[in-house]
Amino acid sequence: MSAVVEPTPFPTAVDGSILTARGAATRARLLEAAEAVFAEHGWEQASIVKITERALVSQGTFYRYWESKQAIFDDLVEDLNRRVRRAMAEGAARGANRAEAERYGFEGFFRFTAEHPALYRVIRQAEFASPDALRHHYEKIAEGYVEALETAMGRGEVVAADPELIAYALMGIGELVGMRWILWAGTKKVPDDLVDQLMEFIQRGLGIER
Amino acid sequence: MSAVVEPTPFPTAVDGSILTARGAATRARLLEAAEAVFAEHGWEQASIVKITERALVSQGTFYRYWESKQAIFDDLVEDLNRRVRRAMAEGAARGANRAEAERYGFEGFFRFTAEHPALYRVIRQAEFASPDALRHHYEKIAEGYVEALETAMGRGEVVAADPELIAYALMGIGELVGMRWILWAGTKKVPDDLVDQLMEFIQRGLGIER
After folding, report:
1. Do the chains contact at B127 and A121, CB–CB below 8 Å?
2. Is B205 on the interface with A (CB under 8 A)?
3. Which residues of chain B neighbour A172 with C-beta distances below 8 Å?
4. Is residue B140 predicted with pLDDT exceeding 90?
5. End-to-end CA distance of chain B
6. What distance in Å separates the CA atoms of residue B77 and residue B136, rounded to the nearest whole number?
């Protein structure tokens, strides 16, 4: 992963007007509350009341930013998506070559997952709450990956193969290894020696010379 | 994947009594209906009424087999889990070596996914409906994989590494590639040339000599 992630758009109110700094901070607090509420209660049981109570704002304030539970959910998925891609891209950008970019990109993803364990629960409930958002989430991550892989394949750093296929394979590896060692394990971290072994598996798979 | 999958237990009634052939058939029809209802409506909106209407049996009949929506959901996850593992193991067993076992195991998984697209939706809603069932699902699949990988590592067919790590990596690859090319694509199938490329990636990753 090393594609550039688009900047966060200016947050707007429901009427499309740009928010003041204070308004933007309130909106961010509501999104943070929504992340916790959707993760804890799930789509059906989550409610605008629960979100506003958690964010300590009035319901009227909520409606300045979103029209519905669906609207804040969709924004939350997009927000998490942008942030996880940024964590991966910032990691990858530190790599001097494809092998390092892959390692730091995975580390960025694992770190984000440890800080935002809600990511998995929110994305999984999107299956029903917002199927398009679910698909969009994976497609956006794949996009950045494909770009980076195409570049590396063009340079002969990585064996030529369908870049989208390899992108989904790598995303799957990150998702299930993160689930097993970050979400389930008490340590909340993929142990270093396992990251080493995983990178060896991936580098061999990609045909990266070391 | 080549571990032996345990036989399907004799289906029983709520009181623990073994069912007649006809009772077992009714129970199977209810499970099939539940698969469709949970996939279509999701955990919250799914109901015993919807399941019995779809299976064309009375509600009283439902309660001979399960006590609640939760109970049939948990049985459904276990049933899908056993069947997907069997599809993978039967595929893998046809392989003459680790490379073939891996290929046929993946093909078994992809075929099962095409026939049971509900698998993903049911497992994802288990995140909330039955978190233990979700974890159990992955752990059972990993178990069989670990066994097969340990054997292959012992024989030097595969590079030595933490077998559980490699198992989750391979499961992740299957899950996201299946999502992208079976659930999302109109073809409902991972194209043969992509399966070829995927197997090359995996074989290189595992360090399988070809």
Report:
1. yes
2. yes
3. 171-177
4. yes
5. 19
6. 9
Instruction: Tell me which residue has tokens 């670990």.
Output: B146
Walk me through the domains of chain B, giving residue ranges and CATH numbers.
15-67 (1.10.10.60), 69-206 (1.10.357.10)
DSSP A35: H
What DSSP character marks residue B130? -
Q: Are B135 and A171 in contact (CB under 8 A)?
A: no
pLDDT for B36-81, tens place per residue?
A: 999 999 999 999 999 999 999 999 999 999 999 999 999 999 999 9
For tokens 């073939």, the residue is B100
CA distance linking residue A207 with residue B39, whole number of Å? 39
Structure tokens, A120: 């998995």
Helical packing angle, A98-115 and A192-206, nearest 10°: 140
Distance CA B186, CA A73 (A): 27
Residues B43 and B73: beta-carbon distance below 8 Å: yes
| Predicted confidence (pLDDT) per residue in B79-119, tens digit | 999 999 999 999 999 998 888 999 999 999 999 999 998 89
Rounded Cα distance between B209 and A147, Å, is 30
